[in-house]
Amino acid sequence: MACKVSLTYSGLMRGSDLTLSYHGTPVVHAASISLAPGQVTALVGPNGSGKSTLLRALARLHKPDSGSVVLTPTAGSTDDTVDAFALSHRDFARRVTLLAQSRPTPSGLCVRELVEFGRHPHRGRWVRGDENGAASVARAMEMTGVADLADKQVDQLSGGQLQRVWLACCLAQDTDVLLLDEPTTYLDLRYQVELLDLIRDLADEHGVTVGVVLHDLDQAAALADVVVLLDGGRVLASGTPQQVLVSDTLSAVYGIRVDVETDDATGHVTARARGRHNSAARVIRTS
Ligand code: ADP
Ligand code: MG
């Protein structure tokens, strides 16, 4: 997945005091999270800790009981900070995209047609008018390594190929903010590594604001500028990987002994969960 893009992005997203419920039962409690331009913020935490629900609220797909989601203007813009829920569907979709954790697989579409759906907020009533559309779609397919699959039917793809096509759909949207819910799911080792590299490049080279749920603490430690640890629907800790990925905290949150090692030379953090067979230390996954 080569990263050859010529986009310029910028935009800060902040969720404040978000309480989120299903059928009247709160599952996220007064959670606050800030996603900064050019930074990767990783959300980690056990199964059911509220990561997806929080990400969906940032993406305006889950209406908060209370709290707010705001967006600061794109660099060079004269706009004020805006309430995300006050924007039109199209204006919001021009600024924020979400790669959701689960999606239905459409049938009767080829890869290029699915990626073209990412252009929907940039189109008027007619397809014409989206001058950058074809270039954005081609670039997104190249970045995610699916250009060769352009004419293939999406219901004939492997899980990993389809995951990359959905990511291409998000990138074709050309947004300031990129929200990704467990994007490495289904990907083999090579594409996991390339996807993480691509996310880092988008943040570093193009100032994209990235919020990503990762199910691998080592990947979060290696990729993220900021790690947000959720437990029971609350933000338990937020800071650098070194600040948040702490043995005692993780052991308490996951209910299993977790050893954390820090490489003195690089500062890189590695987390290992210890099972009953202690000699077989396992890299832990958060969901
Ligand atoms: P995570 O992504 O961290 O695994 P989720 O945000 O999916 O957690 O879920 C948080 C809590 O909300 C869990 O207790 C889960 O069971 C509950 N939940 C998630 N989706 C629904 C739903 N559609 N209806 C009811 N409860 C839900
Ligand atoms: Mg989830």
From TrEMBL:
The lineage of its organism: Bacteria, Bacillati, Actinomycetota, Actinomycetes, Micrococcales. This is ABC transporter ATP-binding protein. It comes from the Bacteria. PANTHER family: IRON(3+)-HYDROXAMATE IMPORT ATP-BINDING PROTEIN FHUC. One of its GO terms (biological process) is iron ion transport. InterPro entries: AAA+_ATPase, ABC_transporter-like_ATP-bd, ABC_transporter-like_CS, P-loop_NTPase, Siderophore_ABC-ATPase. One of its GO terms (molecular function) is ATP hydrolysis activity. GO terms for cellular component: plasma membrane. Residues 13-257 form the ABC transporter domain. Keywords: ATP-binding, Cell membrane, Ion transport, Iron, Iron transport, Membrane, Nucleotide-binding, Transport. Pfam families: ABC_tran (PF00005). It is found in: Cell membrane. It is a peripheral membrane protein.
